[in-house]
Request: fold
Amino acid sequence: MGLDLILMPGMAFDRELARLGHGKGYYDNFIARYLSTAENIGWPKPTLIGLSLEEQVLDTSVIPMAEHDVRLDALVTRASCYGIDSEMTTPL
Reply:
């Protein structure tokens, strides 16, 4: 079956869905291992969603991305959704 969704915490995010973690690479390493296993088994890639406060969201291209860093599929704050089609971006 595999995972459908992984919720990812972070210290900061940008509008291009880059994520700054705590610097230990735990989530990036886990996701790399999981995706490798999932591909071998034939499972689909899970959707990667970051949860944050609006104050944690920075302008585009602010967070550097290394080769091993994984970009999110979406970022959700109380006021906004990034990376999700426009029908879903209406604030609550």
